[in-house]
Amino acid sequence: MSGDREAVLARVRAAAGRRVPHPGVWEGAPGLTDFPAFARILAAVGGEAHGPLPERELPAALAAWADTRGAGRRVAAASAARRLCDPRWETLGEAVAPQALADVQVAVGVGCLGVAENGALAVLGRDVPNRALLFLAEHLALLLDVRGLVPDLHAAFRALPEGALAPPGLTWVSGPSKTADIEQTLVLGAHGPRSLAVFAFESTLRGG
Amino acid sequence: MRLPLDARARVNLPDDRAVARHDAAVFDLRRRRDAAVAALPEFEALRQRAAAVKRHVLDHLDLYLERFEARARAAGAVVHFAGDAAAHNRIVEELLLERGARRVVKSKSMLTEECGLNPHLEARGIEVVDTDLGERIVQLRREPPSHIVVPAIHRRRGEIGELFHRHLGTPAGESDPVRLTEHARRDLRPRFLAAQAAISGVNFAVAETGSLVVCTNEGNADLGMTLPGLHVACMGIEKLVPDLDDLALFLRLLARSATGQPITAYTTLVTGPRPGGELHVVIVDNGRTRLLASPTHRDALACIRCGACLNTCPVYRRAGGHAYGTSVAGPIGAVLAPALTADPAVRTLPLASSLCGSCSAVCPVGIDLHGQLLAWRREVPAAPARLRWAARLAAALLARPTLYRASGRLLRLAWPLLARRWPGNPAGGWLAARELPPHPGASFAARWRRRRAP
Hints:
- The complex is a heterodimer of chains A (208) and B (454).
- In chain A, strand 10 and strand 11 (187-188) form a beta hairpin.
- With 208 residues, chain A is α/β, with parallel strands linked by helices.
- Chain A is globular.
- Chain A has six helices and twelve strands.
- In chain A, the strands form three sheets. Chain A has a six-stranded parallel sheet, sandwiched between helices. Chain A has a four-stranded mixed sheet with strand order 8-5-6-9. Chain A has a two-stranded antiparallel sheet with strand order 10-11.
- Helices cover 52% and strands 10% of the residues of chain B.
- Chain B contains 22 helices and ten strands.
- Chain B has helices at 4-12, 16-38, 43-59, 61-74, 85-98, 110-115, 117-122, 133-140, 157-168, 177-194, 220-226, 244-259, 288-292, 308-312, 314-319, 330-340, 358-362, 369-378, 385-398, 401-418, 428-431, 444-452, and strands spanning 78-82, 103-106, 127-130, 197-200, 204-206, 211-216, 230-236, 240-241, 266-270, 278-284.
- Chain B is globular, with a radius of gyration of 25 Å.
- Chain B starts with a helix and ends with a helix.
- Classes of the chains: A alpha/beta (208), B alpha/beta (454).
- At the A-B interface, helix 1, helix 5, helix 6, strand 9 and strand 10 of A face helix 2, helix 3, helix 4, strand 1 and helix 8 of B.
């Protein structure tokens, strides 16, 4: 199965000099962490930022946004459904085959961190176990607790919670699906969502 | 004398207008990169750090490979090693055939281009659909990508419209990029849903966590990784980074250097298979350890495939990627190819350079690319015979003042003939793109004496 393993590793071992030290942990000064900075970058990469809203206003804001994204199946990942408690969204069960999500018009999930320098949200497998939802939906919304904002990717990786990498994996989402492969013309919705909206909220549970 | 690169440059960029168009399209990426770099104050600090981390990793690559292998296995992935392209193709083929997977979606991977994976699988009855829009375009055209980030940058919208009309049944004359992209999306979506396996490249592999990192803007790699149950990821041995702190560093540099984006739309870390799925990683040498063993050429393995050196290179911009005849074009292609391919023709690629150093100036991991080009020039055994004779003749003339002066007189006499275009003119290659200036009528030495005379 891995018949070449020893040979490849032996060649690498013979060539590795083991002299150059690692420069240590990055200690650069972090940049801005405020929501307007994040929203500005998100807009620049084709996404839209809403909020920050009080958490109780999320269901109405999400419903109003979803109405602008066309009629059709609306699916909420279980993590988002818990926050929204809104029967207008179909809660995604654990055992659904990813192919069964092909007709989703609007989806909502939860992001765990937002990165101000690049407009990216970390979406953990824990929060959206059926990751295909993030890529098959025509339009995607992600909820973000504003306390989860960090200045840059270095800070972001440090702030990831325990188990963040567990299967099915972690995706940084920065804007909608896009391509510029035909004469450098930017087109949104190459394969995945045609639009991405981030709804930042302030948790009603203070200090939590 | 014409180098292979020179001869091929006209195939896809047949006239001055095509060259100018390609040049502008490619340099636009360079400008976007400049804007993104200017917007990040610590870019230069990140760049220097990236250079240091890469050199550390290459110097300890065996340790990081073994650590990655152990952590990826612990997470449930199956790790394979392949010594060369043939072994790589065989491993992938067996994984697919053993599971009866005959419909495969593939996202971008320069390594599989290098190994010729698609033709290998197609010859065994496996349908491989390239899903990156640019790669799909060149796949339908049955040609290789011409740019590592923007594979179809050499094609115009009209050509793509015609191609889609033929293969996807789009209306004749359709050339709007938005509508063409929509047609491609509608054609590819059912292929994703019906796929039995996905093949992807790997942008980074994190040793500490055993994670594979895949970056795309379209989301095509993620559709592949989430729909079929089998995911085969193919990577060169040099893709390792020590930990997540270093991954953050390279992610902050990659998209900014490639397209001027702060990060790609999707950056996915896969650590082990999803429940019920299978994850295989194929780690490929295919000549990379030859580079690793060479103190002179090892640095080329630091490359993170951002394409910045292509976008700034005056040769690449005017010649186009296909002129290189290698899977990776541009300055980095010219310094990787002699180690990664057996074809002696690629050894002349480092000759096709002005050594202007623009590639080195933009490289986010600090590869001294023009130094590498120069180093390869010193060991080009396959230098065309005419070039070797010309160099010997020049050496002989420059060492003998009388002969040198006589040759100057001869050249001035022949000048009117050389400056004109006629078949068989030894200066013909130069005249194709420029005109020789009128010569001053006398040698420099003679003019110098005249000027100094009272």
